[in-house]
Amino acid sequence: MWLQRDISLRPRPRGFHLVTGEVLDAVPELGHVRVGLLHLLLQHTSASLTLNENASPDVRVDMETWVNAAVPEGFAWTHTLEGPDDMPAHVKSSLMGATLTLPLRDGRPVLGTWQGIYLCEHRDHGGPRTLTLTVNGDDA
Amino acid sequence: MWLQRDISLRPRPRGFHLVTGEVLDAVPELGHVRVGLLHLLLQHTSASLTLNENASPDVRVDMETWVNAAVPEGFAWTHTLEGPDDMPAHVKSSLMGATLTLPLRDGRPVLGTWQGIYLCEHRDHGGPRTLTLTVNGDDA
Amino acid sequence: MWLQRDISLRPRPRGFHLVTGEVLDAVPELGHVRVGLLHLLLQHTSASLTLNENASPDVRVDMETWVNAAVPEGFAWTHTLEGPDDMPAHVKSSLMGATLTLPLRDGRPVLGTWQGIYLCEHRDHGGPRTLTLTVNGDDA
What we know:
The first copy, chain A, has about 140 residues and is α+β, with helices and mostly antiparallel strands. Chain A has helices spanning about 20-25, 55-70, 85-95, and strands at about 1-10, 15-20, 35-40, 45-55, 100-105, 110, 115-120, 130-140.
């Protein structure tokens, strides 16, 4: 089976956010897939997706602190017209990546015990974010 | 349907380059896919692929400036036999990644308005780069 | 055909390790795939997967040196309960990524001459690591 759907993730402040539930709730048809893959594309260049710890919120705080230190607003940027948070957001988006593919098994994504899907919002006011979900699998 | 093809991307100078058109022109059969996935593997360890802004060329300039600052040639490298640009190129390749998967819909890749495919050339003289394209989709 | 299997990668010390052989030996059924995709998910948030040079071991040493400099243990981390190597490991895991998709052709993964699969072990004592392998392909 193939299934594809665009969803809108609600606006979030700059930082790293756990969105596993919001994503999976949008594709209940996953429940019929015996084995397959779920692909996620975030349709933006100033936000990103990654897998990381789903437990301690400190991890998400530290991810944000580190990425701001590694890709600072105070740098020799030439692309500054869209604000000081814009060009760093582009770099961070490529560092983390705007796509993610997860295995599916028995109607659920396969993830480690501590793994969750992060939306990494790199803009101060990114607004809602469009995510394209594609499911391919064996539903026999 | 499954389709797989190796293509050669023409040589580009060190930096970030928009290659969306060159890639898609190489797989016109995409036009028959109703829903599916397009996978890209760059067969190299000193260049990479990423999605980022397809509009302002400044973004591509700033990506290059940042990545050179983050992974400088002047560092405690031990692997220096192939030149000062070689080991930084390996690190940059893993930071950005040599693979990319995009959703397909109604004969075209799904991308955000501002998203394009970047070839990130991390060597001074990388030469042509081999890209393996794999299409899987429903062409019913 | 669809095939999915969890395997356990043997424990390795902190650093970058070539695991191409160990991974491929675990899915001999690949030999029947004419064209397809192999997806890898590492079920952990303190280790990662990447493609990089399969030849000189110096490259793997330098990758480790660089990533330790870029994501140092001595940083303003708040998440420190699990040891000084833990929070840097989370950041490194998202930088490299916990998933990888490779094309398959004529019973083998398509990789460049110099490309191999790296397990990036970011903990001092990470132990065995669980990897979920998913194969999708045309075995006609």
